[in-house]
Amino acid sequence: MPRIFIVLFLILLPVPAIAAQTLEPPPRALFPGEEPEMMDDLVPMPAPEPPVSVVPVPASDTLPEAVRRMIATAVASGDEAALAAVVKIARKTYPGFATAIATATIDHDMEMAARKQAEERARIARLSDPNPLVNWKGEIEAGASRSTGNTRNVALFAGGRAEREGLNWRHTLLARIDLQSTDDVTTTERITASWQPNYKFDDRFYAYGIGQFEHDRFLGYDSRYTLGGGIGYGVIRRPGLNLEFEGGPALRHTNFIEDTKETGLASRASIKLRWTLGPNLQFAQDAALYLAPNDNNAVATTSLDTRLIGALKARFSYNLQYERDTPEGRQSLDTLSRATLVYSF
After folding, report:
1. What angle (nearest 5°) sits at the alpha carbon of residue 237, between those of residues 235 and 240?
2. 144-165: pLDDT as tens digits
3. Phi, psi dihedrals of residue 153, rounded to the nearest 5°
4. Average pLDDT of 205-218?
5. What residue spans of the chain are helical by DSSP H?
6. Kind and range of the H or E run holding 321
7. Residues near 114 by Cβ (< 8 Å), separated by ≥ 6?
8. Which of 190, 202, 262, 264 has the alpha carbon at shortest distance from 227?
9. DSSP conformation class of 209
């Protein structure tokens, strides 16, 4: 028995030393600026890890070959609408290549911008030319008909329009003549001539003046003179469609067939519409209304032009003219339909 106690004593003897060594607190880490109390405290505090920065992944600058060829083909075609559509689709399909797509068209965009600037400078220089004989464009219209047999009928129509566009001024000259006889008796005799200068404040807004002469003895007057002015505005101004309204006062002097004369003020309103329906088809509407105490009248012309060869066009038109005061036995409303040839210059 004594031997057993001695063996157990020898086995359990190192346990307190080991336990004491295990329970000893670990060295304390020093904070910045703190002085160590003992040499065992000289354990440096681990440095904080640097913050992780998130770097955005840039969009790819290598355009897919299929997209590059598609854009190059659109640029080479010279069709700006097609190029804009291709670029729009490419950006929607490949949103990560926005920078590369813009780079693919940058040379073309710079070239087009330079070309537009050059064209604008050339346009301003051309419109600024003080020579009154330049910058004119217009048209000459003519038509005729003849019938024989039980009724002999001859009709002639001729007209012309010229317009000079300047940087601030636009001048429009207009002349028309309608003659018709049936069985050697004149049934239509109408002459109109006018000049209208416009001063442009901007691309849409302008002031106008008008001087006009009219002759139509079948509507009751031998001559009628009109002087007026007012304001005009381009309601619609875009390629292929142009709509303008005008309005203002006018002074009118009329010499009637019955050797009476009348002078008075009137209000004038007009509309001008030009609508390109296709490469060779254009619709036009011109109308004017005069309101006066004793001399109301309105005139409107609707026409459809179709291109034949070069500057030659065929025109189908319908003219309406209303006069409130007409001689006894004459109607207030006259209409005329005709087909004519038009040469533009």
Report:
1. 130
2. 988 887 778 899 999 999 999 9
3. -135, 130
4. 95
5. 2-12, 15-22, 65-77, 80-93, 98-127
6. strand 312-323
7. none
8. 264
9. E
Q: List, as one string, the DSSP characters of 36-67.
A: PSSGGG--PPPPPPPPPP-PPPPPP-S--HHH
Confidence of residue 309 (pLDDT cuts 50, 70, 90): very high
Q: Torsions phi, psi of 224, nearest 5?
A: -145, 130
DSSP letter at 175 equals E
- Token pair listed for 93: 């399909």
Comparing 303 with 203, the larger pLDDT belongs to: 303
% helix, strand, coil for the chain, step of 5: 25, 50, 25
Choice between 316 and 29, residue whose per-residue pLDDT is larger: 316
Both tokens of 4, joined, read 């057993």
How confident is residue 339, by pLDDT bands cut at 50, 70 and 90?
very high
150 alpha carbon, distance to own chain's centre: 55
Taking the alpha carbons of 242, 275, 161, 262 in that order, is the dihedral positive or negative? negative
The tokens for 266 are 């009137």
Report the amino acid identity of residue 169: W
Written as one letter, the residue type at 261 is K
Look at strands 312-323 and 333-344 and give their pairing.
antiparallel
Question: What's 168's DSSP letter?
Answer: S
Query: pTM of this prediction?
Result: 0.68
Statement: residue 72 has pLDDT above 80: yes
Would residue 89 be called left, alpha or beta, if left means φ above 0 and alpha means ψ between -120 and 50 degrees? alpha
Q: How would you label 47-83 residue by residue, b for 16+ Cβ within 10 Å and e otherwise?
A: eeeeeeeeeeeeeeeebeeebbebbeebbeeeeeeeb
Estimate the crossing angle of helix 98-127 against helix 80-93, to 10 degrees.
Answer: 160
Mean predicted lDDT score pLDDT of the chain: 83
Structure tokens at 322: 């209303």
- Burial, 228: exposed, middle or buried (Cβ in 10 Å; 0-12, 13-18, 19+)? buried
- pLDDT above 90: residue 277: yes
Concatenating the DSSP letter of every residue in 284-298 gives EEEEEEEE-SS--EE
- Contact call for residues 307 and 301 (beta carbons, < 8 A): no
